[in-house]
Model the fold of this input.
Amino acid sequence: MDTLHTVLNRGCSIWERDSLSEREFRVRLDNIKAGMKERGVDLLLVYGDSWRYGHLAFVSHFIPKNRGALAAIPLAGEPALVVQEPSRNNPFSKTLTWIDEVRSVGQFAQGLGDALKARQLKPGRVGLVSVEQQLNIREWNGLMKTLEGAELSDLSDLLISLRLVKSAAEQALVKKSASILERALEFLRRELRAGRKEHEIAAVAEREARRQGVEDFRCMLARSAEPDIGLRPPGPAAVDKGERLLVAMAASYQRYWAEIGRTFFLGKPSPESSKSHDLAKGLFRRLVEGAKVGSSSAVAATFLSEVPVAARNSLVAYGLGNGIGLDMSEAPFLGREDSVKLQPGMTLTLRVCFSGKECGSALISRPFLMSEKGLQPLVGPVEDPLLIEGWRNT
Amino acid sequence: MQVNSAEIPRPYQAKLKSLQEAMKKEGLGALLFYSTGQLSMLEVNPVLWISGALPMGKDTGVLITAAGDAAMVISLSWDLGRVRRQSWIEEIRVADRFVDAVQELSRQKGIKEKIGIAGWGWMPAAIYRGLERALPGRVEAADAIFQSLARHPGREALAALERAATIADAGFAAILERAKIGMPEHELAAEVEYAMRVQGAEDNFGMVTASDHSHCTHPPGNRKIQPGDTIIAEITPALGGHFVQLCRTAVMGAVSPLLREKFDIMEEAMEKSLEQVRVGKKVGEIARVMNRVFTAYGYEKYCRPPYMRVRGHGLGFLSMPFPEIVDENEAVIEEGMCFVVHPNQYLPETGYLMLGDTVWVEANGPRRLTQTPMKLFAIEN
Done:
């Protein structure tokens, strides 16, 4: 799910080699090179920025903190990483990646040109991943001059396919993020009181997540008191008795994201609130039942046609779920046309979220690992709403 | 949709008037304000500046025609309510295919002339090239138009800036109160974040680093704080689309005579550079004075890359007086500008040290927005 981006990925920024070894990256590199060879590509460029870095992190483990970085992978020889940053940041950047050659530059064309020169490489066919889609036009124009004469082809599908199934190490990192989020959500629950401001409540959850070492943290909420407004960042308004609060959180630990979402009833729920949540719970159960090894990501949402139109539109807008890992939202996308077979080793967020005047509101979002036996939840149950009792003014 | 100008909030009325004049002068039929979901502290966000809504999702744009029509394109349908609440723009469309949506808007609004793009510098190549194909020969960069109008936050922003400054002070106070020997760096950063978030900070360009010899500041790791460590902090909370930055240094334990001596140079550089913050002076003089101080103590080499380069900068989202305080900056300081001045410096004997404050330029000189004393702090615990 999309959230408001931050100006700096400022949480715990490390590479723990015990969690993700260089060997893992070497295996990925071998697979990427096999794909390059098959497609006749002699150089692959993979771009990522501080907002969307999944493909870049997959090849490098690097995460741009506030700008962008470009991995250059020649078919023969070692890759280079070109980072747009002041040169004094270079030693720190090197701690975040297994790639030895890290070039800190003002412009990507300069860094790429130097990397190619050092390899005496004039590529004839260049594969691109997230370069045209994310790199700004000014930098793109510079790169095109550097690559003049080369034939370009988009290789995004190669990286997407390699990232679908997670290794054991990746699964462990997603699980770690999920467990931190579960704990953060519990801290948020303890903090909910009448009169507490939204940002005060969210701050408690964020502090706990950051204490546990997350690299990034996001929190969004929606309130039944303002049915026209969907999930949004917390603001200065105070929560009130009788409200229904939807809370969505996401956090990344060493680049790997997890997402969790839950509905809170602040005091006794109204019949309308209960009805909305019962609908959500039923849909979530069917979503889980439909997500099986070998089934298509599109099939997972066959029940949609039975859902009232207002809720259905909202469900589709928020998304019924997706892969989660180096991106908060990545392939496969449940309920979409771009059908992918669900496989063991995929890590998934399943989500039922709707909000609006005509459909009420509810949120259930939970991370899972797809195994041969079916979906294995990575956190405890979140399907039931949390009733905040003993309501009192602060 | 033709907007009734009387219903538009006054600051936006003024912006629209200026934009219409600029479009007329440049022969443009419209301006397209564009933003991806990536946000930067070092840029004015074109969409926020013109609409009042911070963009969320992959592509967001606002089209302002020469006649003063306004229409907005967002990518997340569930975000429509938030955008409607924050923005004065009535016509808001949800589109998954941004280029198609702009092409359709251009057709519906009968735009025949060129469309200037505000936010061109950040526009992904695929979007720009798509617009070139959809509107052949009719799109061009127009960053300069809106950047020239966004150099001052405006006096109406002062309350938010002062509040952000108070929040920045609270962030640094958290370091003094919470830093403990053995505490992982990221836990200390979490306390700083909490102290500011709980007071309403909407974002933070914040880095907290503890080391016996830092080469620069960077986001925290899991290193545990040691006795004698120097903690350097760059704290930059945002409120209402405005940022305030505070840079400070603290030592775990007693301050050594060597560090005291070197930090005196930082204080001298800060004091002398602030004397250059005067209406009518050139921005580059701030950097030159700062560099002269360090050079006088034998650190000329360390005033250049890879050690140092920038001596302060504008703070973005809603205004940006100029990008960087560097020797070569010929921009002239004006009343009402807001920027950070920081003689942050790597010194070979001590490592990287930080000192800096955000200033609001008044007729008679700079007004520091934060209250944290400009000194070296010692944390005894």
Remarks:
- The radius of gyration of chain B is 23 Å.
- The longest helix of chain B spans residues 158-178.
